[in-house]
Design goal:
With 630 residues, this protein is an alpha+beta fold. The chain has helices at 38-55, 57-60, 70-75, 78-110, 112-120, 125-161, 176-201, 206-215, 219-254, 281-296, 347-351, 377-384, 442-447, 467-478, 490-497, 499-533, 535-543, 548-577, 593-610, 612-619, 623-626, and strands at 265-270, 301-306, 318-323, 336-343, 355-358, 372-376, 393-396, 405-413, 432-436, 454-460, 484-489. The strands form 2 sheets. The chain has a 6-stranded mixed beta barrel. A 4-stranded antiparallel sheet has the order 2-10-1-11. β7 (393-396) and β8 (405-413) form a beta hairpin.
């Protein structure tokens, strides 16, 4: 099978190809000479376009050239999203490292007596530090190895759900660079986050240590562990807020009315038989009408229509025009413009677009009747204001329409989100115009067979599971040489426009969930350790009359205090960092109070829940056992 086919542009049988004013959507690719920067090339192109504007003022005045590095063109808007996800990964890594450092600190505290005796027997400070760092690095390397194995399986799973728009998704794999990066990160993490427990135990003091073993742990160690928990909570809150904002944005986008009803709508393209490439326009028109009739009669199909120009969230085509009765602009750049949809009479029925005023196309609108158009409400408001648009006339500036075609507006329909659910309202070009397929002039009709055929959209009944096969059968009955290709449901097209957002939201949500889990483990470990260190103190309190409920509340209060401080610090960090994901948000402020409050409550409840088991264990302390050795 061919993966790529290259053909000369000059073989394209489009009469507009040789006309300077035709907008055919052709892009150029160039390699800069060695030593030439993109800025220098842009300046040179500005001089070229300025010269063209002087030589051809009617078509090139106001036309410029935009030079974009190919890497930036390929990556598009994905690069900021990937950088944000990289930051989220970094946060999760930091939380995990802080967690390990906290647990290592607790473990080293339990071994304080051991290190004190080692020091008394002659072990130097450097040797004790090396021992602790060696243990920390080995632990980090073991974790890194396990992480690589898990990443291998997770990567394969992620590739199945990656959006097709993500550049070079097929090249994502675990290679030597990933292994080297993992090794370096594991070593650095093991050394940096092993320093705290290493330094804590590297200066053992035998007398104080023996006294602490009888009375309780060091307050300095408790404060260090509490600080680690606060850092974890703060970073977890930042990730949870980011995930919460993107989830609310995605849910908001799914609630946006696209201007049509996408359910049960299927799109596909049909290639014309080779014999139609040089067929006369009358033959092509007759075949176009027959296509609609045959496909509409297919079992399971409610309505069918062809669509040649723009199509919502898929392709775009623009039309220049001016209002009849006004002087024609001297330059194309001074023309009014709108999105152009070239469709058949059943298009509104297929797409479920509401007709607001006037009428849509009918079978009586053909090549022999006056040229008519239908516009959307945005077009009507923008170009006619409070004056009724139905009945007004415009003139189309299009070479394949004769350059000056008078068109009467016969209806106004609802606006369709051409540019996607989240970005349509921010686009400059939103006005929409509908033209009738079979009213298009002969030059336009003649280009259809050689331009890839025709594009159809059909609405099916709710019970049409094998619709595509039925359509293929109808297609074979019409002509065995024509082929249906690129079938896709309208729901899939909409989903595709949200693929990058959905993928980044899922990943950010996963990272936030991991951060929440690690933070809860961290606070559980610290509170559990503190309860174990304060067993005698708790026993003494209970011996002096403290109730089980009072002890339970005391432990929970300790955990809630750490969580509360972390939430406050996390709030401050989130107010700054969430502004970095503004481009990923829709209809939600990066400082949305509802999200902040909900995340703070969730994080606090999880932290308190993590303290429940240590608190219950503290309630069950037997004063007699706890004080036996006092």
């Amino acid at each position: 099978l061919f993966r790529s086919i290259y053909v000369p542009i000059g073989q394209w049988s489009n009469p507009l190809l040789t006309q300077r004013g035709a907008g055919l959507g052709i892009h150029a690719v160039a390699r800069l000479k060695p030593g030439v920067t993109i800025e220098q090339a842009t300046a040179e192109m500005e001089r070229v376009t300025s010269s063209l504007a002087q030589a051809f003022p009617d078509t090139d005045k106001g036309i410029g050239a935009s030079l974009i590095p190919l890497r930036k063109e390929v990556l598009g808007d994905v690069q900021p999203i990937l950088l944000i996800l990289l930051g989220a990964v970094g946060f999760v890594l930091l939380i995990a490292c802080v967690n390990v450092a906290n647990l290592s600190l607790a473990r080293s505290t339990a071994r304080t007596r051991e290190f004190a005796i080692r020091g008394a027997l002659g072990a130097g400070q450097g040797r004790l530090v090396r021992q602790m760092l060696t243990e920390s690095v080995l632990l980090a390397l073991a974790g890194g190895t396990l992480g690589v194995l898990l990443a291998q399986f997770a990567t394969q799973a992620a590739l199945r759900v990656l959006p097709s728009q993500l550049p070079r998704a097929a090249d994502i794999r675990i290679d030597a660079r990933v292994l080297l990066f993992t090794l370096i990160v594991s070593l650095v993490a093991g050394i940096l986050f092993g320093l705290a427990p290493a330094l804590q135990t590297s200066q053992p003091r035998l007398n104080e240590t023996l006294k602490e073993s009888a009375r309780g742990g060091s307050g300095t160690r408790h404060r260090a562990q509490g600080l680690f928990v606060v850092i974890e909570m703060a970073m977890a809150l930042v990730l949870l807020v980011g995930a919460g904002l993107t989830i609310r944005s995605l849910l908001g986008l799914w609630r946006v009315d696209p201007g049509f009803r996408p359910n049960n709508v299927l799109t596909f393209a049909v290639s014309f038989p080779p014999s139609f490439i040089n067929a006369p326009p009358a033959t092509i028109r007759a075949y176009v009408r027959d296509l609609d009739v045959k496909f509409a009669a297919t079992p399971g199909v409610e309505a069918a229509s062809q669509s040649w120009g723009a199509f919502p969230m898929w392709t775009d085509d623009e039309q220049l025009f001016w209002i009849d009765g006004q002087p024609k602009p001297t330059n194309e750049n001074d023309m009014k413009w709108a999105l152009s949809y070239v469709v058949q009479p059943d298009y509104l029925k297929v797409m479920g677009i509401p007709l607001e005023r006037g009428r849509f196309f009918s079978v009586h609108d053909d090549e022999h009747s006056p040229f008519v158009a239908v516009v959307d409400d945005v077009f009507a408001r923008k170009y006619f204001g409070d004056v009724e648009a139905v009945g007004k006339r415009i003139r189309l500036d299009r070479d394949d329409l004769g350059g000056n075609t008078l068109v009467q507006i016969v209806g106004v329909v609802g606006h369709v989100h051409q540019w996607g659910l989240g970005s349509d309202r921010t686009q400059e070009l939103r006005a929409q115009m509908y033209l009738h397929c079979t009213q298009m002039p002969d030059d336009y009709i003649a280009m259809v067979p050689g331009g890839g055929g025709t594009f159809l959209v059909v609405r099916s009944t709710d019970r049409a599971p094998h619709l595509l096969e039925s359509l293929r059968q109808t297609n074979r009955q019409m002509n065995g040489e024509q082929v249906i290709y690129d079938p896709e449901s309208m729901n899939d097209i909409i989903s595709g426009t949200l693929a990058s957002r959905r993928f980044s939201t899922i990943l950010l949500g996963v990272f936030a969930a991991l951060a929440l889990l690690l933070s809860s483990i961290g606070i559980y470990g610290v509170i559990s350790y503190l309860v174990g260190q304060r067993t005698r103190e708790i026993g003494l309190r209970m011996a002096l009359g403290a109730s089980h409920t009072g002890v339970f509340r005391m432990v929970l209060r300790e955990g809630a205090k750490l969580a509360g401080i972390g939430v406050v610090i996390g709030f401050g960090a989130s107010l700054t960092l969430t502004r970095l994901i503004t481009s990923m948000l829709y209809d939600v402020s990066p400082t949305d109070p509802l999200t902040f409050i909900a995340v703070a409550v969730l994080l606090t409840l999880v932290a308190v829940a993590a303290c429940y088991i240590p608190a219950r264990r503290a309630m069950r302390v037997d004063p007699m056992v706890a004080l036996r050795y006092e």
